[in-house]
Amino acid sequence: MIRAARRLLGQPSARRFALLLLLLAAFAALLPALPRPDPARLPELADSLGGLAPVVAIVGGALLLVALVPRTFITLASGAIFGPVEGAAYALGAALLAAAIGFAVGRALGREFVAERVRGRLARLDGWFARQSVLGVATVRLLPIAGFGLVSYGYGTTAARVTPFLVGSVLASAPTAIGYAMLGAAATSPGHVNWYAAAPASLGLIASAVLIHRWWRAERRRREAPS
């Protein structure tokens, strides 16, 4: 077993994949050590950042997402700092950038290792990822299977195409970005939030059901089609 492990790690693709796993393990281990900001002081950050506020919000939020920090926390903080409209926009920008970074890292470190070893059902699953449309990616994003950053890394190791992945990631993130940004803004400035603007957030559950139904019908038609 030890010799087999040494032979495996002697392969460049295996070493890169091991590096990816170590990176994810390090992020998971460091999560509990992250500082918890005082919600009452979050609005002061927008003034202190000045004109760099949008860049810091998007880039900083993206880096936190790829470090496996939950997107809910980042979106709530964005709404508390910048308000519901700007907070939602910056949270979506961070989600797009984080999806691109996570996908690129997963593709660079894990794709070759996975492609060399998928067989049978795993190969069919990999092919399903390659054929996925924007709606297919959004469906996976809406399912409560893993965190935002982890899904981005995982997609990079598959044969998925980058454009549908990025567009589907933003599409799936939009309803909750609006809703959580408004909740964050309400926590610091409850009198300045128009709760009717939160209506799009309620569409998240409906969108999830519709997308899952469409995926299920497509899979059933594929199985029933003549081989």
Explain what the structure shows.
- The protein is mainly α.
- The protein has one domain.
- Helix content is 77%, strand content 0%.
- The chain contains 11 helices and no strands.
- The longest helix has 34 residues.
- It is globular, with a radius of gyration of 20 Å.
- The mean pLDDT is 79.
Task: Give keywords.
0% strand
Q: Give the C-alpha Rg.
A: 20 Å
Number of helices: 11
Strand count: 0
Give the overall pLDDT as a whole number: 79
User: Which range does the strand content fall in?
Assistant: under 5%
Q: Which structural class is indicated by helix and strand composition? A: mainly alpha
> Biggest sheet: strands, sense, closure?
none
Q: State the shape.
A: globular
Task: Indicate the multimeric state.
Answer: single chain
SSE topology string: HHHHHHHHHHH
Helix fraction by DSSP (H/I, runs of at least 4): over 70%
Terminus-to-terminus distance: 41 Å
Number of domains: 1
Return residue spans where pLDDT drops below 50 for at least 5 consecutive residues. none
Quick recap of the structure?
By secondary structure, this protein is mainly alpha-helical. The chain has one domain. The longest helix is centred in the middle third of the chain and has 34 residues.
In terms of topology, how is this protein built?
Layout: H1 2-9, H2 12-30, H3 42-49, H4 53-66, H5 71-82, H6 84-117, H7 120-131, H8 134-142, H9 148-156, H10 162-188, H11 203-224
